[in-house]
Amino acid sequence: MLKIAIIGTGWFADKHADLLAARDDVQVVAFLGTSIHKAEKLAQRYAGSQAFDDIEQLLDTCKPDAVYINVPPMAHGPIEEAILARNLPFLVEKPIGLDMQTVDRIQQLVESKQIITSVGYHIRYTDAAQTARKLLETRKVGMAVGGWMGQMPGVPWWRKQGGSGGQFVEQTTHIVDLVRYLVGEVEEVYAAYAQRHMHTSHEGVEVADVGAVTLKLANGAIASLTNTCILPFGHRSGLELFTDQGVLEIQQSQYLKHHEGSLITEYKDNANPYERETDAFLYAIKTGDRSRILTDYTDAAVTLRITLAALASSQSGLPIKLGTK
Ligand SMILES: NC(=O)c1ccc[n+]([C@@H]2O[C@H](COP(=O)([O-])OP(=O)(O)OC[C@H]3O[C@@H](n4cnc5c(N)ncnc54)[C@H](O)[C@@H]3O)[C@@H](O)[C@H]2O)c1
Q: Which of 39, 163, 166, 212 lies at a CB distance of 3.0 to 4.6 Å from 51, suitable for a disulfide?
């Protein structure tokens, strides 16, 4: 039985805890909150788990075999460092931070200690993404068009620039990751962002509510991604790949459609990608075989670098070439 500690007490801490509690090979042993009260509230729901508001105390008392990190983007750094000091594997939700200096430091530790990590880019685990990868073995992508069009999440940290990093860093990162996974690595970024409405209708909104980003890929393909959080509802998030043999359309966690003129083939997502993500991570811990983990800390750092470059480009008005770090 693997002992798992959960950092965070919000929506996604609960989501991961639920998935873990449904398994018979793990026990959720602890929750860490910003207050003991929040941690206790969640711990009460999972038999045998304890509540903490101090990570050192949690790690010393519960001695977990692995840790799930589900905190807002601005809270990364000290948590990972405490976990790495004890050489523990961790699964961390995206995005993995907001500043590359901290992420580079953690990445170096992860690599030098050869720690097993996984990052919550769950779309990679969908049937849609896996089928698209297969189909792309015999197709050439000219360009990718996609994005994340929806509403502003209600949590207070999301609307702060220094809390979430903005929509492209926090949400559309999933689509940037999908571009990398399906089409190739990005070498240049240009972005235009604006605040059109949300800062006038809601208190304290610092982030842009519309954005358009152009990505040039090393293999010559181009991606055009847009996002908005101005809508009163979630509209769509996904990616279309325009290839020499038709269009591959992915709607996240729903389906892949292959358009060949009037012929449309639909592949539905049949499995829960979060379950597959957790399966792969736990399998790696039990066997040492990391091959089922589809994205790790080092890989996710590449995605973060792209989304932060987009933010910098939106501020300077200039394209940014992504060299090696
Ligand atoms: N992969 C996905 O599909 C997916 C979906 C939703 C959220 N997420 C990611 O999960 C992360 C958390 O999102 P959420 O929706 O659960 O947010 P949330 O606001 O519901 O919860 C965040 C929690 O983190 C806690 N927290 C903040 N700083 C902390 C610290 N230093 N130590 C311990 N706890 C701390 C807060 O008290 C809160 O309980 C975000 O990075 C988000 O992008 C991923």
A: 39
